Amino acid sequence: MEAKNKTTFLNPFSLGIDLATGDMPEATNHLIRRASDMKGYYLNENALEELIKRDSDPIHYEVFEIPVPEEYGHLMYCISKLFPGKIGEEYFFTKGHYHTVEETAEIYLCLKGEGYMVMKTSDGKSEEIRMERGQMVYVPPFWAHRSVNTGTEPLISFCVYPAEAGHNYGDIKEQGFPKRIFEKGNAIRII
Ligand code: S6P
Ligand code: ZN
């Protein structure tokens, strides 16, 4: 069989994912975001600069994937691994994005760690949903999404989304999300 309706024909395959650690040994794509990639995202710019200097620009989060064709019909899947820590009082987070094809959803199954999925829509809605091992978050179409690590170990999730979705970082660097998550007086505060 050849490509059908512009969807590339593939043969079935399988791969291993260690559900305790999130390791996906056969991953061929490895995206690394370092602390310096997060300039402009956190409230406390000086604390971020200090971290970059002190720890020689450490890895902030990483994504492991085995790509499939970025076409309607296929499903992209990956492991997202966000390290623990704070910039000032603000817990480490991913940049966050809309999908370029806005009407595409995403599933995050949390394998390790704890935190929140922070979400917003372009017309002002906002949600923060708890993530912990065994919890699945459904990010519906139209919602920008960012994971936040409020724990002490890496926050690791298995993500699945339509392969044609794409990433739109849009206004997030300038506007952020309606809510940020801090540690204040030893408690998690969503403000
Ligand atoms: C892709 C999915 C994740 C994120 C990853 C990094 O749709 O949501 O793989 O790409 O968690 O986040 P970001 O916001 O830097 O792309
Ligand atoms: Zn996404």
Topology (elements, then pairings):
Blueprint: E1 29-34, H1 45-54, E2 59-65, E3 75-82, E4 86-87, E5 90-91, E6 106-112, E7 114-120, E8 126-132, E9 136-139, E10 144-149, E11 155-162, H2 172-175, E12 181-184, E13 187-190
Antiparallel strand pairs: 1-2, 2-3, 3-11, 4-5, 6-9, 6-11, 7-8, 7-10, 12-13
Residues 33, 63, 78, 80, 94-97, 106, 147, 159, 161, 167 line the site of D-sorbitol-6-phosphate.
Quick gist of this model?
This protein has 191 residues and is mainly β. It has 2 helices and 13 strands; from the N terminus they run βαββββββββββαββ.
Give a verbal description of the structure:
The chain has about 190 residues and is mostly beta strands. Helices cover about 5% and strands about 40% of the residues. The chain has a single domain, classed as Sandwich (Jelly Rolls). Strands 1-2-3-11-6-9 form a 6-stranded antiparallel sheet, with no helix packed on it. The protein has 2 helices and 13 strands, in the order E-H-E-E-E-E-E-E-E-E-E-E-H-E-E. D-sorbitol-6-phosphate binds next to strand 3 and strand 11.
